[in-house]
Amino acid sequence: MHIKKSKISTKAGVKEYLSLVESYRLNGKKKHKTIMSLGRADTVNEDHIQKIIFGLSRLTEQLSIIDNKVPQNSDTNIKIHESMNLGVPLVINHLWKELGLPDLMKKIQKKYKKLQFNLDLVFKASIVYRLISPGSERRMLDWFQDAYLPGTENLQLQHLYRGLTIIAEHQTEIEDYLLEKSQTLFGIDCSLVFFDTTSTYFEGDMLDNEALKQHGRSKDHRPDRRQVKVGMVMSRDGVPIHCPFFAGNESDFSAVPTVISSLSRKKGIGEMIFVGDSGMTSLKNIEELGKQNVRYILGSRMRSVKVVKEKVLTLKDLLILKDEKKNESYQVKNNLFVTEKTINNKRYIICYNPEEAKKDKLVREEIIAKMKAELSSSPKKYIKHRLHKRFLKITEAKTEIDQKKVSEEEKYDGLFVIETDTNLAAAEVALRYKDLLLVERGFRCLKTTLEMRPVYHKCSENIRGHIFVSYMALYFFCLMMKRLEQSKEGMQCEEGQILNSLARLKAHKTEIHGERLILRSEINSLNSWILKSLSVKTPNRVLKKW
């Protein structure tokens, strides 16, 4: 290609024109094909040429002008007004549409005829906010300018609060819909479900009488604050399927019947095995599970249940299980040895972890050493402590360390006991019970990455809405990770790298030659793999005008 000059006679005289032409041969003869007319030669200057280059660049989506070749002292400089997060909104928007959530939200919005905002946008934007830069709803209004979420510029604070209320009212409908879609589109396996609870505390005004806000045993180590109990049910593959709420003073085992009843009513969940820790285990809960025809794998309370303490954990069995020369046949995997017993038609799986045994011994020795140094000066500190109290001998005359109790505690080092009515092999039961860590990991993500706590809301609906949006952010993150793990072109990366990498994919508000455009940044190799694995279409370099 080359620039061709052509002279054309007009009434005003001879004018010279420029055109971009391509040379080619036809039947051995040289020919020229005009690709583009550039205008009169006397009007074509450097600025005009730069604009033409930019126009051609847009057609090919290469934007070759953005390579620092633009003179810094000219009016053709590119002005970048601001940068917005594009990666996370792009992925969530794709999954959102794939799950058919716009139709569900449209259906819900029709029930509120006077609603003056887009409920679908509020819900989706709230989830993206949790994944990128979690904080309060007030702060979210300012954050909207940092993310590429067209339409959010018209949202008001009252829309966000009202949206939380509506979402909370329709939580069950949304959960049931997503459960069905998750099974169909992502192959979620609900034949085995994990349940656990955590707590989240409140800040701000504590004078309201909201029933959910109660003092209770705090898993955040904030007994000074009122709290709400949050439950989570996860599928076998680690995807959240249910998020129940309880008053802050409700115990773990009292929450189980409510959860079992809810799960039994959900479509798409047939026969299932319920997995819970020792805090869920009680005779009443086991009976309730039986009534609902739900099999169980539950942790057992080794120290407080008489049959476990005296008949399951016998000295003979423990000596064999802990003997490195004799326990090889009981080994399931590194640091996990398993045996089983059936007593009174109940099946118990005894598990031993040598590494945990070393840790338990070390922790206990540190506690005893500290108690010996401080017990005489501050006995009340240890008498009131739920765990340290078991090492003490308390009389009217004095409080001292009970060496017999310390020695007895040694037998529990590295041990945990599981009750089950399944037909699974003992090793399989132990491994599935250890998968409860999936829920703990989910809670850790909720409280750290997604910053669910603390909660500042007062009314029940907004409390539920705030927590449910955090739960939904975790749901989408788990779906992302599940699909990425299934990718044939797998890459070695940690969970935290996914969101961090997507955060580097930006949408830039720019001004080039007076034309205002939103351009996306370059896509690195990790983001390219993420988008491809999630079947997300790569967006054009030019996203839109602004």
Layout of helices and strands, plus pairs?
Layout: E1 2-10, E2 13-26, E3 29-40, H1 46-60, E4 79-85, H2 87-98, H3 101-109, H4 119-132, H5 137-143, H6 157-169, H7 171-186, E5 192-201, E6 227-234, E7 240-242, E8 245-247, H8 252-265, E9 273-276, H9 283-291, E10 295-299, H10 306-312, H11 315-322, E11 331-333, E12 336-343, E13 346-352, H12 354-374, H13 379-383, E14 392-394, E15 399-401, H14 403-409, E16 415-420, H15 426-434, H16 437-447, H17 460-486, H18 495-502, E17 506-512, E18 515-520, H19 525-533, E19 542-545
Parallel strand pairs: 5-9, 9-10
Antiparallel strand pairs: 1-2, 2-3, 4-17, 5-6, 6-7, 6-8, 10-16, 11-12, 12-13, 13-16, 14-15, 17-18, 18-19
Question: Can I get a quick summary?
Answer:
This protein is an alpha+beta fold and 546 residues long.
What does the model show?
- The chain has 19 helices and 19 strands.
- By secondary structure, it is of the alpha+beta class.
- Among the domains are: 79 residues, no CATH class; 57 residues, no CATH class.
- Strand 14 and strand 15 form a beta hairpin.
- Helix 4 packs across helix 6 and helix 6 crosses helix 17.
- The protein is elongated and about 120 Å long.
Shape: elongated
Average pLDDT, all residues: 83
Low-confidence stretches: 61-75
Name the structural class: alpha+beta
- Cα distance spanning the termini: 34 Å
Specify the biggest β-sheet. 10 strands, mixed
Strand content: 15-25%
Helical run tally: 19
C-alpha-based Rg, rounded: 32 Å
| DSSP strand count | 19
Helix content: 40-55%
Summary tags:
546 residues, 19 helices, ten-stranded mixed sheet, four-stranded antiparallel sheet, alpha+beta
